[in-house]
Specification:
CATH topology of the largest domain: Rossmann fold
Radius of gyration: 25 Å
CATH class of the largest domain: Alpha Beta
Strand content: 5-15%
Number of helices: 7
Order of helices and strands: EHHEHEEHHHH
């Protein structure tokens, strides 16, 4: 059996993890709670360990983030124990929870895709052309001339109404260097 690794997180600076820490210590979580972040804790965790949290919302700020964390735990064969929701994925019922989380993640991805397609269709029905506007190559050529003449790329971008990253990307693509 692996270690029980407790993870406590607060949402704002004026909150305290003491209550979470006390509850996690009661289920046998060791020193790992003192690690500064979830990423570090997950890097420390090994197959067969259990990640313990007081509530599921401690694992992510959004459902998508929570689902991604749960998916990663499952792939790495790390169990999840949530005290508040009474979820323990080391049991058969807990294994079902992993499957439900996977189904929810799939459902959420499909919903986002369908909403995006609906939005694009509605925009087209109103005569709009969704997506990025084509790059004005005359502006790009002017920017490259300005840069070649010694103007800083960010200044050329500002002057011509182009994005700074666009100017730098086009400089790389066209092999344009700044004049000395």
């Amino acid at each position: 059996m692996g270690a029980i690794l407790g993870y406590a997180r607060v949402s704002t600076g004026d909150q305290d993890v003491a209550g979470q820490t006390m509850r996690l210590e009661k289920v046998g979580s060791g020193k790992s709670m003192d690690r500064p972040g979830l990423a570090e804790l997950l890097a420390y965790a090994r197959m067969g360990d259990t990640l313990a949290v007081v509530r599921l919302d401690r694992l992510g700020r959004s459902l998508a983030e929570l689902l991604e964390t749960v998916k990663m735990l499952r792939e790495r064969k790390i169990d999840l124990l949530s005290l508040e929701e009474k979820i323990d994925t080391s049991s058969a019922a807990g294994e079902l929870v992993f499957h439900v989380f996977g189904a929810i993640a799939h459902f959420e991805r499909r919903l986002i895709s369908e909403r995006t397609k609906d939005g694009i269709a509605a925009a087209r029905a109103q005569g709009k052309r969704p997506g990025r506007r084509p790059l004005d190559m005359k502006k790009v050529e002017a920017a490259m001339k300005l840069v070649s003449a010694g103007m800083p790329p960010n200044e050329a971008a500002k002057q011509l109404g182009l994005g700074r990253s666009t100017v730098y990307r086009e400089m790389r693509r066209l092999g344009v260097s700044r004049a000395a």
